[in-house]
Design goal:
- The chain has helices at residues 3-20, 40-125, 132-141, 148-161, 176-180, 208-220; strands at 166-173, 195-204, 225-233, 238-247.
- The chain is of the alpha+beta class.
- The protein has a domain at 142-247: Ribosomal protein S6/Translation elongation factor EF1B (Alpha-Beta Plaits, 2-Layer Sandwich), CATH 3.30.70.60.
Length: 251
């Protein structure tokens, strides 16, 4: 056998042996190392840049979202404060002013009534310096007796002229002893010797102008009457008026 033939046989034998051996024990020719891609570092840098840009963008979006929420809350608080200052505060001030005006008006009306009663009492006691006509008028304005039928008739006539319907009347002659007590629970604010007839009217719901006219006409009536309370009842859908009339029995 010549030399080339022996080498071929040897190579064939090695190949067969290599096939029967595991790959890590086979006599395989060494693999040539792959050439590194020069573009890969650039791609990695680009990926890192894109990741940082996205993270920055997300952070800015979250930051602006929180910022605008805070701005919106602060704006709402400022609007509330300004609305209170310019709207609610002015309304509260007006309401307080109206209450003060109503209180002053009530005091004025009470003082006016007190003055009128004082004058009538003096006129009843001393009739020498006044005319007969004035004496008769004083007897109507401040009679010496309760004269309850006269009160009822006057109220019914006033109601008709004011287009108001009276649905019920409750009339009480207050106890003179209770009125005269200095330690009474109720301050009646009447001169000594003047007594009270208290009337409670139940009036059907009427237009405001008619009701206002009714109250005004009661206080303009010849016999002295004073409307001390006006309450709306939502249950019966009507008004309750408390009226006081006065009389002076004298000595």
């Amino acid at each position: 056998m010549d030399l080339p033939t022996q080498q071929l046989n040897a190579n064939a034998s090695d190949n067969r042996n290599n096939k029967t051996l595991p790959k890590d024990q086979q006599n395989l020719p060494p693999k040539e190392p792959k050439n590194p891609d020069p573009e890969e570092p650039k791609k990695e840098d680009q990926k890192k840049k894109i990741t940082k840009a996205e993270a920055t963008k997300k952070f800015m979006v979250l930051w602006f979202d929180q910022y605008f929420k805070m701005v919106a809350i602060v704006a709402c608080v400022c609007l509330f404060v300004l609305s209170y200052i310019f709207i609610l505060h002015s309304r509260v001030s007006n309401a307080r002013s109206l209450r003060g005006n109503k209180y002053e008006q009530a005091i004025f009306e009470q003082e006016k009534l007190q003055t009128q009663l004082d004058y009538l009492v003096r006129a009843q006691k001393d009739k020498t310096n006044i005319s007969l006509r004035e004496i008769e008028d004083i007897g109507i304005i401040l009679p010496s007796e309760p004269l309850t039928p006269q009160i009822l008739t006057s109220l019914e006539d006033i109601a008709k002229s004011s287009n108001v319907t009276i649905e019920g009347i409750d009339l009480v002659i207050l106890d003179p002893i209770e009125i005269s007590k200095p330690d009474s629970d109720i301050n009646y604010n009447v001169p000594e010797g003047v007594y009270i007839v208290e009337v409670t009217l139940n009036v059907a719901t009427s237009p405001y102008d008619d009701l206002k006219s009714f109250v005004s006409n009661i206080e303009k009536n010849m016999r002295l009457m004073d409307v001390i309370a006006l309450v709306y009842s939502p249950i019966g859908k009507n008004y309750n008026l408390v009226i006081r009339s006065y009389y002076f029995p004298g000595e």
